[in-house]
Design brief:
The chain is 37% helix and 25% strand. It is built from three helices and five strands; from the N terminus they run αββαβββα. The longest helix is centred in the last third of the chain and has 34 residues. It is globular, with a radius of gyration of 21 Å.
Length: 178
């Protein structure tokens, strides 16, 4: 059974009385730190033979999941802008696509297609094996950096609480009398 995304569930339940389910990616990459669970990778996959509609629908779903994940992590801690990214992997037919959603320094999410590779269905095609290995090594490097950035942001959030923890005072003005 697929596990629902906490990030998606959080977004869908904002301002709603009745609790809604989150999206259920095919695979998620999670890390747990200080009783907090972070979703760093989302994967959507299809069969080897699938329609273009299925590929497009999974691409949109993956974009939405990465956007929810980035917003969820930003609410828990503040990873370095323009460096930390949520990874989206789409296996569409016999092609694997590696994507990343990164918030720029202004906090605007940017969705990038990082790389893609043909999945070798037989070990005889060396060029396909090499391109698949390249994409897997790229994914490994991204995840090493992301995990480090999340840990730094968590430590920063716990050791340096926000300065203005008290709400601003409310100022009342006297009513205007004619």
């Amino acid at each position: 059974a697929e596990r629902q995304s906490l990030a998606s569930k959080t977004r869908r339940n904002q301002g709603v009385i009745e609790e809604l389910m989150g999206k259920k990616p095919d695979v998620m990459g999670l890390i747990k730190q200080d009783d907090k669970i972070f979703e760093l990778i989302y994967t959507e996959s299809s069969r080897i033979i699938c329609s273009e509609t299925k590929k497009d629908d999974d691409d949109v779903k993956l974009w939405r999941e990465t956007l929810d994940g980035a917003s969820f992590i930003s609410a828990l801690c503040r990873p370095t802008g323009n460096q930390f990214g949520i990874v989206g992997i789409q296996v569409a037919g016999s092609v694997i696509h590696l994507n990343a959603l990164v918030k720029d320094l202004a906090g605007i999410p940017q969705y990038f297609h990082v790389d893609h590779a043909e999945i070798p269905l037989s070990p005889s095609n060396i060029s396909r094996v090499k391109s698949l290995m390249r994409i897997l090594l790229t994914l490994r490097n991204i995840m090493i950096v992301n995990k480090s950035l999340v840990m730094q942001a968590l430590e920063q959030a716990t050791s340096h609480p926000p300065r203005n923890v008290n709400p601003s005072p409310t100022v009342f003005t006297p009513p205007y009398n004619n």
